[in-house]
Amino acid sequence: MLSPETRPWTMAQIAAEAGVSATTVSHALSGKRPVNPETVARIQRIVQEHGFVPNSSGVRLRSGRTGVIGLAVPDIAHWYFGRIAKGVEEIANERDYGLVICGTMNADPRREKRYFNMLRTRAIDGLVYTTSRSMSDLDELVTVAQGSSIVFADEAVDRLPEVPSVTTTVREGARLVGEHLRELGHSRAVVIAGYAGLRSTTERVAAFREYFPTALTLFGDFEQQSGYELMGDLLANDVAFSCVFAHNDFMAIGAIRRLREAGIRVPEDVSVVGFDDVDVATIMSPALTTVRKDMVEIGRRSARTLFDVIEGEPGSARSSVLPVELVVRGTTAPRRD
Amino acid sequence: MLSPETRPWTMAQIAAEAGVSATTVSHALSGKRPVNPETVARIQRIVQEHGFVPNSSGVRLRSGRTGVIGLAVPDIAHWYFGRIAKGVEEIANERDYGLVICGTMNADPRREKRYFNMLRTRAIDGLVYTTSRSMSDLDELVTVAQGSSIVFADEAVDRLPEVPSVTTTVREGARLVGEHLRELGHSRAVVIAGYAGLRSTTERVAAFREYFPTALTLFGDFEQQSGYELMGDLLANDVAFSCVFAHNDFMAIGAIRRLREAGIRVPEDVSVVGFDDVDVATIMSPALTTVRKDMVEIGRRSARTLFDVIEGEPGSARSSVLPVELVVRGTTAPRRD
DNA sequence: CTGTTAGCGCTTTCAG
DNA sequence: CTGAAAGCGCTAACAG
């Protein structure tokens, strides 16, 4: 770019310069076999001088490994997946792996094909896969999963039970919410749920029903707007309720906005609980009662599990389920008639 | 992983199976030279059957290109850098490039070394570099920048004027803020600025001074907490002001929180303006008056510029400066005595 | 239309 | 302690 043609030095050139063979340079740098200290010193000097670093394509072809893992997320700009990415990146970096991010744009098939191919072409050694909705091309994933290193983060895929996953106790989270609202004296609840196709949605709906068996359940898309609109529908239809369980904080925030516009106070008239514990939950006023999921930890754990798959004893990679925690803040209050 | 040893097929094996040479397989797949249609068909079939895809390490070693670009960001989980990443990813994907994300953890030297090395080892073809503070190891960057493809996103580096950058008209943004507050009748302002070492900070401070020449300026770190604390200092010292210009929305939000705790109303008693226009700015109430920067577009433009550097005519890559826009919402109001 | 050869840059036998 | 040679998987020149 700046200098027109700065072809980097090759090991052979360094070797020539040092008056030794490439083999010796290789070993001097890796320490994988004894080399005369003087020779090492000389090589080091020349390496320093030219800023030589072994070309990674050569190393990769030779070793059959890339030193890179992939992370597939629907949208990297999303708070939720950003946190996961942070955790994955942290561990990858620790292990001296690179991380390539594949945005799936909410399951755009062309995009998905692309990172499946990265696995197939051995451009990456493994993949952490996340999704916020049901897969567009599950069949292809099933094929690719054979003989590849994959870990599902946050959401497992039912059809692939053998693939390790890192999930959370969402069922327990929903129970905590139900219990909390019951203790506050509420008896009529509505649920603004996540995607209908996700296991985590089904589980939460079922668990919440243990406390509110007849709770009306509407399915949204995890975006604020959908919480807003679904709440609008509820109000337009005169549904009677004194509390809302939203399957994530963004939808909860949207629902609260809609309630306020209708002159309904939160938490005085209606209690609202979210899920995930986004940053905003503490900023808003009143602060949002929610269920905390440690997204960064999900990322970390997923990456570690992936490395178990890649480097560990066969079968050493185990699925794990991380705990969640109810955080009671200001959007829930005792029922008032 | 699942199947114990599924070594992928090599081109040579496919060739043997098809009764042709590897060369022919290569050309049949790439179309770079005519191949007998029947032969092509046969090869296609075998390729399909075994799910063959050319090993990328081989291709890379041969071609000298990796088909991957890097993105260095302080923290991928941060709203700001997530947006940039989204834009970069979008364009990379469009060009069939992979994107590796390098978290610099706010300029951790070990981390920075790591992705500089990726450039050096030719593990990536180019790098989009962002920073939120002054560089930890500018000298190393200067060295690496020689003969490598780099683009600075969002913040240019003064010592490297030849490196293309994509920035915004922050100066103009600060002027708009000054003008707006003047028009509302304010005469005493304080500034909660960004890192002192950044050009964008200096520029904004200077531009705002055109309207409020004596505005007290405190430097923060772009985090909410710092806006909160700096506002605390201002209050503790009885500084007289009726409006605040914060260099980003998070600090603005922190400052507002602190003002409220002190019983000072926004915007009735004090007007507050942020910068960037984060999602939360619209959610909070009153909604935040701020200056909108299109972060995703910065990402896109940076990636395009990087591809100009990598693939374009030498010298075809140009720095660009994107516009910003004042968004007047609810946290600013006419001065009241 | 097709094959042979060579070589990208590296590491690892095997042989001194 | 060191080197020569082979080969990872692919493709471009050079022959047919």
Automatic annotation (TrEMBL), chains A, B:
PROSITE patterns: HTH_CROC1 (PS50943), HTH_LACI_2 (PS50932). It comes from the Bacteria. InterPro entries: Cro/C1-type_HTH (IPR001387), HTH_LacI (IPR000843), LacI/GalR-like_sensor (IPR046335), Lambda_DNA-bd_dom_sf (IPR010982), Peripla_BP_I (IPR028082). Residues 10-63 form the HTH lacI-type domain. Keywords: DNA-binding, Transcription, Transcription regulation. Residues 9-43 form the HTH cro/C1-type domain. This is LacI family transcriptional regulator. It comes from Galbitalea soli.
